[in-house]
Design goal:
It is built from 10 helices and 13 strands. By secondary structure, it is an alpha/beta fold. It has 2 domains: 198 residues, 3-Layer(aba) Sandwich (Rossmann fold); 99 residues, UDP-galactose 4-epimerase, domain 1. β1, α1 and β2 form a beta-alpha-beta unit. The termini are far apart. It binds NADP nicotinamide-adenine-dinucleotide phosphate (NAP) and ligand G4F.
């Protein structure tokens, strides 16, 4: 068992919850940064809430980050907090930049000034590849972001590289392709679909309004992806890694599998609504994670169809209890 400690920003989110579970299993003392809200939502970490020590803070407030780091004295810092929904990044572009871009400098700099020996993980994204310059995308593929979110993540990525090169910090950036789970937020396409399929099956909803069904994504399971985050910080030297499945599927395939799993045809329920079509789309993401497989020994356990059916089953179980 480890006697290390870790500070996780974004602990209430999908990835934060799986990472906290993983680190607790490994014997870490886990600190979770939470921001003050009037109605705290802890659904994803309810089952482990007693094992986590919470520290108050916000990526927008550097003083609070310095205090959180001074209090927790972490060996490892995982920066998972972000305004993470691409759609909202067009309606709140400034806030997205402040949290998802400048927020990274706020925490990196707080680590550099108060705990420079701590290892740092930045949650970078395949959205940085945007209008892809090559397929499949790997660590050396040039970035061409297509949303304010993608632009902010490119900044977060490069400032992490810059602190590593300027100050010799152990800072890694994980370029993760889409990863999903029953804990995914309801506005992201996978969970939106599996929640709707469950509601339609249970007679609680009549139709599902969607945007672009032709977009292709490389979708994996979040539980597999947090293992890669941890592996990056256990290496002898810091580096950046693509984490992906190496398979791509259209949104239509996702919808087809989800409805098919409960014996329904998506064509009877899906309505295309321009409201969900984005001002600029990322048409195709497909990752090449050869480097992570070879250097980290990372491997995938859950495939695409298994992921979608797991999410449908989970949503049916949740909604059946209401
Ligand atoms: P998520 O479920 O949306 O969680 C985001 C987390 O960030 C929440 O805990 C949220 O806290 C926190 N947060 C937002 N603004 C904050 C602020 N100003 N200060 C402190 N905390 C703040 O996201 P996720 O899917 O777990 O993703 C984790 C990270 O990986 C994000 O940085 C995301 O951009 C990145 N990423 C995700 C994927 C993916 O497919 N999931 C792929 C590549 C990269 P509240 O509960 O208070 O809102
Ligand atoms: O599920 P999405 O909203 O995820 P997106 O935009 O790929 O971003 C996610 O993955 C990134 C990694 O590549 C993360 F960095 C980011 O934080 C987030 O987790 O949309 C996926 C695709 C898009 O092409 C979108 O246009 O689904 C398409 N789509 C079609 N109809 C829809 C809908 N997306 C949403 N959210 N809702 C729809 O009704």
């Amino acid at each position: 068992m480890s006697n290390k400690s870790a500070l996780i920003t974004g602990i209430t989110g999908q990835d934060g919850s799986y990472l906290a579970e993983l680190l607790l299993e490994k014997g870490y003392k886990v600190f979770g940064l939470i921001r003050r809200t009037s109605s705290p939502l802890m659904e994803n970490i309810e089952h482990i809430v007693k094992e986590i020590e919470f520290v108050e803070g916000d990526l927008l407030d550097q003083g609070s980050l310095v205090q959180a780091i001074s209090k927790s004295k972490p060996d490892e810092v995982y920066n998972l907090a972000a305004q993470s929904f691409v759609g909202t990044s067009w309606t709140q572009p400034v806030l997205t930049g402040q949290i998802t871009a400048i927020g990274v400098t706020n925490i990196l700099d707080a680590v550099h000034k108060t705990r420079p020996e701590a290892k740092f993980y930045q949650a970078s994204s395949s959205e940085m590849f945007g209008k892809v310059m090559e397929t499949p995308q790997k660590e050396t593929t040039p970035f061409y972001p297509r949303s304010p979110y993608g632009v902010a993540k490119v900044y977060g990525h490069w400032i992490t590289v810059n602190y590593r090169e300027s100050f010799d910090m152990f800072a890694c950036s994980g370029i993760l392709f889409n990863h999903e789970s029953p804990r995914r937020g309801l506005e992201f396409v996978t969970r939106k679909v599996t929640d709707a399929v469950a509601r339609i099956k249970l007679g609680m909803q009549k139709e599902l309004r969607m945007g672009n069904l032709d977009a292709k994504r490389d979708w994996g399971f979040a539980g597999d992806y947090v293992k890669a985050m941890w592996l990056m910080l256990q290496q002898a030297t810091p580096d950046d890694y693509v984490i992906a499945t190496g398979e791509t599927h259209t949104v239509q395939e996702l919808v087809d599998i989800a409805f098919g799993h409960v014996g329904l045809s998506w064509r009877d329920y899906v309505v295309i609504d321009p409201k969900f079509v984005r001002p600029a789309e990322v048409d195709l993401l497909l990752g090449d994670c050869t480097k992570a497989k070879q250097q980290l020994g990372w491997k995938l356990e859950v495939g695409f169809e298994q992921l979608v059916t797991m999410m449908v089953e989970s949503d049916i179980a949740k909604l059946s209890k209401l």
